[in-house]
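Teaching assistant here, posting this on the class forum so everyone can see the example we discussed in section. The complex has two components, and the goal was to see what a joint structure prediction looks like when all of them are supplied at once.
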Amino acid sequence: MNAYFFARKIGQIVSLILLMVVVLYAIFRLMPGNPAELFLISSRTRASTVELKALEAQLGLAGGKWNFHGFLIYFEDMLTFNFGYDYYYQATVWQLLSLALPYTLLLLGTAAVLSYVGGIPLGIVATWFRGKRTEGGIVTSALVLNAVPYFILAIVLYLYFVSYLKIAPVRAEFPWTDITSPSLANFATVVTDMALPLVTLVVIGAAAHLLTMRASMVSVLGEDFITTARAKGVPERSIMFRHAARNAMIPVSTRMALEFALLASGAIITEIIFSWPGIGHLIFQAILDLDYPLAEGALFLISLIVILAYGMLDFIHAWLDPRIQL
Amino acid sequence: MAGAAAGPPSPLRSGPPAPPPVLEVDDLSVRFDTDDGVVRALDGVSLTIRSGETLGILGESGSGKTTLAFAILSLLPENAVVSGTVRFGETTVAGPEISGRAALRLPRRARRVLTAKLADIRWKGISMVFQGSMNAFNPVYTIERQIAEAFLLHTTLNRTEIHERVLETIRRAGLDPVVLRSYPHELSGGMKQRAVIAMALALRPRLVIADEPTTGLDVVIQARLIGELRELKRTALDSMIVISHDIGVVAQLADRVAVMYAGQILESGSVLEIYKSAANPYTKALIDSYPSLEGARHEVRGIPGAPPDPIAPSPGCPFAPRCGYAEAICRTTPPPSVEVEPGHWSACHFAREVRSGRRAASPAPEALAPVPPGRVAGPPILRGERLTKYFHLRGTFAGSLFGGAAAVPLVRAVDGIDIDLRAGEIFAVVGESGSGKTTLGKTLLRLLTPSGGTLAYRFPEASSPESPRIGAAGGGLTAVGDLRAGSRTFRAFRKDTQLIFQDPYDSLDPKMTVFDIVREPLLAYRMAADPDRVVTRVTEALAAVSLAPPQNFLDRYPHELSGGERQRVAAARALVLKPRILVADEPVSMLDVSLRIGFLNLLEKLRREFGMTILYVTHDIASARYLADRILVMYLGVGVESGPSQRILEEPLHPYTKALLQAVPVPTADWNPGRIEIVGEIGNAVDVPAGCRFARRCPYRQPKCAADPPPRQSSGWDHWYLCHFSPEELRSIRGSGEFSGSPASARPGP
């Protein structure tokens, strides 16, 4: 672990964040439409040019969508976490985000942990049964699930459990106090509300981890040191879990961050379908409304989480593999 | 093939006054069911190992020696079908009912009992030193944890006791206890192999199986390890099986030898008996395949053909298609096992005649008497002067920030080499891994751009490259060291120089046919306009490397070829442009012993027929001696001795050359690895000593050796070496190791 490594790592993260801020500025302005016009259309049938100019000035859009001075202000605000005031919700973006962020973190975090905890041991189990019918079953279903997009599974689950069986809530409505002051009843509400979005994310995420882990395990089991362990009389279970699994985790952990980014995008889609009051839901609405401040702020936050998760990867790597020196 | 019942009578049962058998292998056959068909890995193998005895198993790849080791450890995979038995003491560890596929069908309880029984025998009864020690340790755990695991599994000792025992184990193997806290990647090859041996001996098992225990190690370390294993044999080992393809290694460690071929034991007997009076054509051919040092330049012949296909065995003797003695009967009837001497068995129809020499072999088609050395010596064709190649290591941020350029670690892979290749000669560069020999080869071909020095090439008279010629000393040579990569002169140089890589498995694109592979250089030099001409040239190239008939190879893919054939295809690819210089980088080290000489003879043939200049890069000084006219010995980026190969062999002056020559294991009783006085390992080329690079390991070192770089001294025509001592001084200390002054005391390597 040395200063060079840290400096390089921090440099990478910082430049990635700066790049992301620029991309966020551009990406919304590339979308067709003018936010001020849209805003006025939603309130009245027809807006005069004078009104339009006045509103643009009020919203900080004077000088058009593309405007260098505006960009500089935006750039500074982003880096100081000042996301501005939202003209639709009449609240600061921070207020909106701070209401939604806990829900997203709850869903995303639980889904990430559960998919690793479920997928990786299942991958080991599939290797354990290699060559048998059990393995074929596990791998085939994992392949199918891995190929299903998040939104398909989410819609199927929604139609069956919400529309047909009517045993799941139409939307998650538990207040955040259910989490902060846990009781059995509160916990039950949270679980029912969260079940379907969580299942969507975990099933698909775990299938991906399972497949990577199994492939990695199979190649590690061919290594000489596994034969050495067998010759030493190490029981097969210890060979799998102690000798092979940790080595097999090294390539899997490389994919972890990648999978996390996928999971984050999946979470956004899932939130929309299940009306989960998280950031994904906010982003969706903000994009439809051309609500620049909210969309930029929300995406900034999500991207930041993913970038920082990437940054953690090297430390996980170094912990798993002594050959890697930080 | 001989059925299980009619197999050869147990050839390895030795005389009556013997200690009790530790291991008995009785008529063992192992087949593997694969998608391609049934592979017969072992075919009626019987042998006995008694307490206190070391059995050597000699065989090439595919001979079934590793399958035999796995059967003994009951580690056969699930697709194995076993007949015959392996008994360890009273316990049956492999047999038709319990091994391979049969084990899967056992009732659950019987399987559990069996697993428990086998788990108890593994390591405690039989342990193993694995081939390729590089990967024998789990990379993510410390050495201590992995040795301790053996104690945890098989003893009831507590943590402190285990720690004590692990310490004792590692000390017995001659290692510093600090290695216990290391991870495998932090140890050098030699240290790792010692740790592997220590782990195998940890529980003091009755039988240790050493599968290629020294393969892949440098020759000096190999010799040292053989010495240590011989010492352990006296003190710590009961009985041992040494498996190797190297007759020298087997001869130095084993009491008795079994020679395996195609899953059968073709000959067995005492080491001396086998080596001096082999009674089997295969053994004879294998021994003849070794370029030996003392046999001077005797005609070494390879074994023609390739090892048999294990899927489609022939009805007669498995060696018959490659055998120089074979008659009609050999191809139809399996040979009986004949006891030619008490305890010396040979499975051959003509065992007695072969042994007595009354039957002569018909000459093998690839046999080729090499030219006496030094006969060809044209003008220099490629010359490197003070040639250097440095690699920069990425250092620490703080170091590069505050230390300036000096703090950036520099690997001095090639550090001021003077080399002159003369037209039409075979020049060998010899050194351990890490000596920079491969980098030198690549730098000479400008595959790497030299960091310093000059590199000059003599273009053929016809071409007229417009580029500056170096002065009078250059004598018609053109500097190519700093040519732009795209220039015409450079392309002409590149076309004249080609390379053959070490690993024929990695150097050929598996998705291309032989024709595509060999044609590719023609495409690269836009010489493929006329399709008929291309086919002709490819066919010619294949014919030149003795792939006959070439038409049969054009449409085949690399995976359909044997290792020897692949390396010939790689050679054909190099030859298709009709280069003038060929660099062969360890071309035979991945090939089977019986195929190596065939390839070396091919290089000789190319030199003779096409007048090619060949740079042969190798770690094996014996093969360099066999093939090359001149030798350069490299150590840590510098040349330490160079001269005609005859002279280097007869009168090595540099202590390192001497050690290299002594370290070649030979199958004679008086070979003594203890005579090698150099210590430690080669280290790396980052922190090179200010004085003599070899000083740290040199048995004769004096204070001035570490302080001043040694001068280059000449010892007669064309022979020089890099040392502070005069030839007379070095001659006076030859062999004895005594020297006026204080000889350096041996100390363990850094």
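For the discussion questions: The mean pLDDT of chain A is 85. The first helix of chain A runs from residue 3 to 29. Think about how each of these relates to the inputs above.
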